[in-house]
From TrEMBL:
Species: Parafrankia irregularis
Gene3D superfamilies given in the database record: Nucleoside Triphosphate Pyrophosphohydrolase
Transmembrane segments: none
Pfam families, per database record: NUDIX
Family: Belongs to the Nudix hydrolase family.
Lineage: superkingdom: Bacteria
Domain annotation Nudix hydrolase: ranges: 47-185
Protein's name according to its UniProt entry: 8-oxo-dGTP pyrophosphatase MutT, NUDIX family
């Protein structure tokens, strides 16, 4: 079943239960998810829609970044929700596999809810006939047993790197570090099939 506005609203609510200081920043998105017919999981919904990303952490506390070809910036692996995605976490895992070649079977979620929500403006793309719009990025923290060799999707990704967790900036870096102080990383090798 595709991701619905109710799924998005429930995820935002669970996130805000943990991070109530973000309530003001995401109140309008929560209200839209609860009251709008516009599917927030669709990339066609403007002026904004939901995307999902993966914060991939190794036991030695390194984080995967990809170099986004069109935006020419280092980002986390992630992207748009597709109709076949049955959850927001599933979207993040599919995007990780597509962009970095890391399959869902080699990672384990640290949390079932996002570790961070982030809103950022995406410039207009005349080639895709997309106006400037906002991505509401739901970032999921996942563990991988080692900095595995990745095979980036060369259409979207020009490079990748593993940076020390201490170099992950801002609110995201702080939340990931705080989470990992209170939780042990799951061992992806011991996941049940």
């Amino acid at each position: 079943m595709p991701v619905s506005n109710d799924d998005i609203a429930n995820t935002i609510s669970a996130y805000l239960d943990v991070y109530p200081t973000d309530t003001e920043a995401f109140a309008a998105l929560l209200e839209t998810a609860r009251g709008s017919e516009a599917p927030l999981a669709s990339r066609a919904t403007t002026p904004g829609h939901v995307t999902c990303g993966a914060v991939v952490v190794t036991p030695d506390r390194r984080v995967l970044q990809i170099r986004h070809r069109r935006l020419e910036r280092w980002l986390l692996p992630g992207g748009h929700i597709e109709p076949e995605d049955d959850s927001l976490l599933a979207t993040a895992m599919r995007e990780l596999a597509e962009e970095a070649g890391i399959s869902g079977g080699s990672v384990s979620p640290v949390l079932e809810r996002p570790v961070d929500l982030h809103a950022h403006v995406i410039p207009a793309n005349p080639i895709k006939v997309e106006p400037e719009h906002t991505h509401y990025d739901f970032r999921f923290l996942v563990a991988v047993d080692q900095a595995v060799a990745t095979s980036p999707n060369e259409e979207e990704v020009s490079d990748f790197r593993w940076i020390p967790l201490l170099e992950l900036p801002g609110q995201l870096g702080g939340r990931v570090r705080a989470t990992l102080l209170t939780r042990k990383l799951p061992d992806p090798a011991r996941r049940s099939p």
